[in-house]
Amino acid sequence: AHSRGILHRDIKPQNVMLGQFGEVLLADWGLAARYSEKSSKPQPVKSIGGTPAYMAPELAAGLNRRIDFRTDVYLLGAILYHIVAHHPPHRGNSLMECVAAAADNLITPSDIDNELIRIARRAMNTRPEDRYQTVDQFIAAIRDERVHANSNRLVMRAERRIESMSPTVSLESFAFVDSLLVEALELWPENELAAQARRKLQIIGAEAAAKRGDFDLALTLYESAGQSASQRAAEIREQKTLLQADRQVVSRYSVLFTKSPDAGLLVQLPAGEIVEANAMFGKMFGYRMDEVVNRTIPDLKLWVCSKRRRELVERIRADGFIEDFETQFYRSDGSILDVVVAGRQVVVDGKTMMVSTIRDVSKRKQAERELHRSRTRLANLQRLAGLATWSYNIDEDSIVWNDELFALVGRDVESGTPSRDEYYSLVHPEDRQRLRTVVEASIQNGQAYSIKIRQRNHSGEYHEVLVRGEPIRNREGRIVEIYGVSMPTRR
Length: 491
Fold this sequence. Notes:
Elements: E1 6-7, E2 16-18, E3 24-26, E4 33-34, H1 57-60, H2 69-85, H3 95-103, H4 115-123, H5 135-163, H6 171-187, H7 192-211, H8 215-224, H9 231-258, E5 263-269, E6 273-277, H10 279-285, H11 297-300, H12 306-319, E7 321-330, E8 336-348, E9 351-360, H13 362-385, E10 388-393, E11 398-401, H14 403-409, H15 420-426, H16 429-445, E12 449-456, E13 462-473, E14 479-488
Antiparallel strand pairs: 1-4, 2-3, 5-6, 5-9, 7-8, 8-9, 10-11, 10-14, 12-13, 13-14
Helix pairs in contact: 2-4, 4-5, 5-6, 5-7, 6-7, 7-8, 8-9
């Protein structure tokens, strides 16, 4: 209508109709007037017209010279105000009070304060030049508000997520919330709420990245949030510099075991994170390097016995190193290896590392178990044969007797095996030094011996026995034990 120079002058909810197919129809053109922007007033305008609850002040005051297209803009704003505030803009106890309120542009206030109500209030400005100048501008403002509302809804979703975020938020959660805010800003680039929420999210993400040690990402996010010159960003840059120095030092340590024939690990303490592993470790335990590096020792589930793991950790903490620590580890396929661990604790720029080597001793342990079983079988056979056997542990200076030897000597088993000096006291004084000399010579030269001595029984009488001893060597060839038999001789 405006494009054809026609003013309606009585736009109100009762004159707006919806057709069967959703089309909008504007009815009751009885107060319409022709208007030309080239003339100074509408033609013809001869009376006050309109509905006081929505009437523009120039209509209510009869200021015909001020009536133009912006008068209809006011009436459209009045309808929008009614929709949002739930009541028309002008009220009065009588028709004349309502007309007076319209003439003075006294708008009944509303507690609602949003963008739509502000659009309506602008359209209803007292001075026409302060209103939207065309209906198209008014429509554009409403369309912008719809876009802004959609943008703000995305911001609200993002803010709810931000409020529930933990200090160690995952990259996936961060990326999802950031995508909401990016979409909100794409809809409405000037949305300051979205910009503020994104800055807040970026700082949270930067701190989470710093906790994970991803200092590059943390600094990038601080820069995006406009905080690159902050004290916290400076601290992270310093941490990054220290980390780079640490890695250089760590790489020098790693050279020590990269080519080692034993499995090697470089572990950061106390978390147990594996910084580097050599090729032998992967071969021994059946892992690829990418399955090991940056994981923790507990993640790999290497230890068969958690108690032994605690013992190693305690000894490392106490002494700073560990040597020849025997334990068992799981391979990746679940099989068990007997291993010996050696390690040394080092401090690199305030961070504690452990360089360790792991040697497979499964074959030796299997041989030792076979030897133990053989000895057990031998002891059982000797017991069945009634042989009195004994063993002397050189390192521990201790003697073990079997039951037959207790019976031969007449000593109560409950009284326990005698010490070496106690045993020598059971030997006849004239034979003691001779026996000592033979035993010491056997320890020195590794030769077996056989000697007859007189030995006192429980009644105090001496009887002659034949004592035979066989030196036992460990895997390094050192004599660690003498194993022997005592047999009574017949006169």
